[in-house]
Design brief:
With 319 residues, the chain is α/β, with parallel strands linked by helices. Helix 1 (14-22) crosses helix 7, helix 4 (71-82) packs parallel to helix 6 (105-116) and helix 7 (131-146) packs parallel to helix 9. It folds into 3 domains: 14-145, 3-Layer(aba) Sandwich (Rossmann fold); 147-214, no CATH class; 229-313, Nitrogenase molybdenum iron protein domain (Rossmann fold). It has helices at residues 14-22, 36-45, 63-68, 71-82, 96-100, 105-116, 131-146, 178-182, 198-208, 235-245, 272-281, 291-296, 310-313; strands at residues 28-31, 55-58, 90-93, 120-123, 156-159, 189-192, 211-214, 229-232, 249-253, 267-268, 286-289, 303-306. Residues 49-162 form the Nitrogenase/oxidoreductase component domain. One of its GO terms (molecular function) is oxidoreductase activity. InterPro entries: Nase/OxRdtase_comp1 (IPR000510), Ni-siroh_cyclase_CfbD (IPR052673). Pfam families: Oxidored_nitro. This is Nitrogenase component 1 type Oxidoreductase.
Length: 319
Amino acid sequence: MKGLRKYLTPFAPDQSGAVSVLYELGGLTVIIDAGGCTGNVCGFDEPRWFDKRSAIFSAGLRDMDAILGRDDALIQKIVDISDAFDANFIALVGTPVPAVIATDYQGICHILEKKIHKPVIYVPTTGVGLYDEGMEMAYLALFEKFADNKPTSHTEAILGVTPLDFTHAFSLPTFNNFEDFGCVGSLKKLYVASPAALKAAKRLHNRYGIDYEVRIPGLSLDIHDVHHILFIGQQVIGHTLRQQLAIPFDIASFFMMKPTLREKGDVHLIEEDDLIELVKKNDYDMIIGDPIFKDMLQDYQGQYLELIHFAVSGRRDFS
């Protein structure tokens, strides 16, 4: 049945993906909602919330605010709260309410910048997309506003890393510092770690001539005596492992699947049954994916290698 989920919980939505990019940049993030979306971000979709706080606020929209489009009240709230924080910038993140009433983000940003004398960006998420769509929008907004070629001691960086996909740290910069955006034009190379970062990498290449490679440096698996693998998850993680292992290796994902990375056998999943049927009709002797997918594949008899994907299950790897 279309849309029926018996095993999978709701995936992290687009506003959560946007917040995951903004989280550590020292900005003041305002989610334009009545409170529920912000509660979901902080309570369920942001693994750093209990360890490392960020200035995230709800606009606290009431019914009449939405119906009458009271932008002046929203602007005043943001002006008031900005006085209490020495933020690098203000970020407005969309939800279903502003999407439905066609909130003029550009106009609000223009007014706010005149009032508070700080840069303001908006991420036009709608609350109905998935997390990687929000990540993509956030990267584009940040680089459009803050990209520069200030000097830096680094020559390479990784773009597209947030805890919604990755549970480990990287040795190269990953744009989790606000200063990284101002120095991006001085880099020689970007590693693109997520499909959500590919559009931004292409724009940076066109603007600054920065080379980019779609691969996650340092990612590897020690696998032997396996003949056909199915990877379920984020496409670039699967792509990196496929290039390393050089054996029959299919990628299936409920998220972005960029055509340039797809190979024969790769599948963009929509329903739970798509994954169940894919496994039934192929002779996979290993599946790699979040533990929640294992619960769906009760008839599968091969090896299952668990790889945490927080945006899918909300589980954290404490190993």
